[in-house]
Amino acid sequence: MDDVEMKPVDEMPNGEVEEKKEEESKQPLSPVEEIKSNVALIERAVSTLEPRFTHRVLRTLGALRKKLDDKVLHDAIDEIYTNADSPSKKALLSWIPGAAEQEGLMEVDSAPQPKHAQPEPVPESEIYFRLLILHHLLASPSAYPRAMELAHETIQRMQSLNRRSMDPIAAKVWYALERTYELGGELADARPLFLAAQRTASLRHDDETQASLINRLLRSYLNYNLYDQADKLVSKTTFPVSAANPQYARYHYYLGRIKAVQLNYTAAHTNLQQAIRRAPPAKTAPGFYQAVHKLSVVVDLLMGEIPDRSLFRHPVLEKALNGYFEIVKAVRMGSLSQFQSTLSKHAAQFEKDRTYTLIVRLRQNVIKTGIRRLSLSYSRISLRDICVKLHLDSEEDAEYIVGKAIRDGVIEGRIVHEKGWMECGGQKSGYGPEVSDVFARRITYCLELHNQSVKAMRYPLNAHRKELAAAEGAREREKELAKEIQEGGDLDEDGPDLGEGF
């Protein structure tokens, strides 16, 4: 078989060269190359004063931190900081757990240093590397104390540099600091740091850091059930209008939790809907998406509404909302026994989701629904049977609940105390003298409104003739005045008084 002669790249057709370049560009970058590209974007953002390049880098942080390990971080720092004597490089490598072993290997097979080393990267790149190392340390529980030290040192480093081009990265660092305290079980200890930094950010008009710190404080308060303090923080601060959508989504979610605990279910529903609209896609942030919908389902039930069944078939929510779906079925059927069994079965999940106290409030809704179903099924039912069917403790409780339902207008009927039963009002039909009277009143009102509108649009008869006569008289006076001017008459003696402005 003859050998096939391979053509050089210069002799290849242009189409094949372009296809080869497209295939190379479609190949995903390695973690080290991605970090180097991000550092180049950060330096471009600092040199051109365009923060959008830094925001582009931070958007990849969630996916990049899953690929980090000791070797990736060490190689990236070694390629970015070419000067071996750089203090920033030594400081960064000291926080990597396997840096000592990597340094020993690199000293054995070290390549010759270039004669002209590249300039030192900007301080924003150093803070970005610290942020990556911090997320890498938070991946293992044994490194939590070391991550705490790195977080505090990074905060001090940022405050000493005091560069406005570092604001987007600073907001992410504050989130990492909160995450460090939360995983260490010391979230309350970070509250003074957040309050002081929030005051500084508001004075400097640093909207991104201010929005992040307000969310950090709200999360800290709600984590310890300090709803009054969280409400005071919301009333005393103004959330920045220019904040990013993820920060706004978190803020509305925290507001929804506060309003729900304060029995303001309408405002809570509005805030939760805003959080759902502003949240990232379900596959991008499934945890937040599930948390918002869990609280939204409970708030809808407290408002007397039943959530749509298709919500519980969503691929991201189907498994997470299993317990809540059973609660919805119990509320819809008005079965107090099913509600109590579901509540005890999924109590651990509800406690973890911090929705247990809100779900307990649904007991009254379940009882009201059950009483409404009984009033539609029976024309007369004893209080004892109501107590048995709704699984109430005593007949006195049943009498109190039924009386309150009648007073609130949930059902129509009356309680006969002498005989111990409830007489339910007959179900009204869609026709009758009462319905016709209401319909006649509405028609009369509409006709009267129409007649008044027609009268308001009428004009006086022959009103335009008066305007025409006045305009004709003005023209005659102008003609007489023009005639006197042409004849040379004296305006002061014979003509009309035109005033000084003429």
UniProtKB/TrEMBL annotation:
Keywords: Proteasome. It holds the Pfam family PCI. Residues 487-502 have a biased composition (Acidic residues). InterPro entries: CSN3 (IPR050756), PCI_dom (IPR000717), PSMD3_C (IPR013586), TPR-like_helical_dom_sf (IPR011990), TPR_PSMD3_N (IPR057985), WH_DNA-bd_sf (IPR036390). GO terms for cellular component: proteasome regulatory particle, lid subcomplex. GO terms for molecular function: enzyme regulator activity. GO terms for biological process: regulation of protein catabolic process; ubiquitin-dependent protein catabolic process. The keyword Cell membrane does not apply. Residues 1-32, 470-502 are annotated as: Disordered. Residues 1-10, 17-26, 470-486 have a biased composition (Basic and acidic residues). It comes from the Eukaryota. Residues 249-429 form the PCI domain. Gene3D superfamilies: 1.25.40.570, Tetratricopeptide repeat domain (1.25.40.10). PANTHER family: 26S PROTEASOME NON-ATPASE REGULATORY SUBUNIT 3, 26S PROTEASOME NON-ATPASE REGULATORY SUBUNIT 3/COP9 SIGNALOSOME COMPLEX SUBUNIT 3. Belongs to the proteasome subunit S3 family. This is Diphenol oxidase-A2. It comes from Laetiporus sulphureus 93-53.
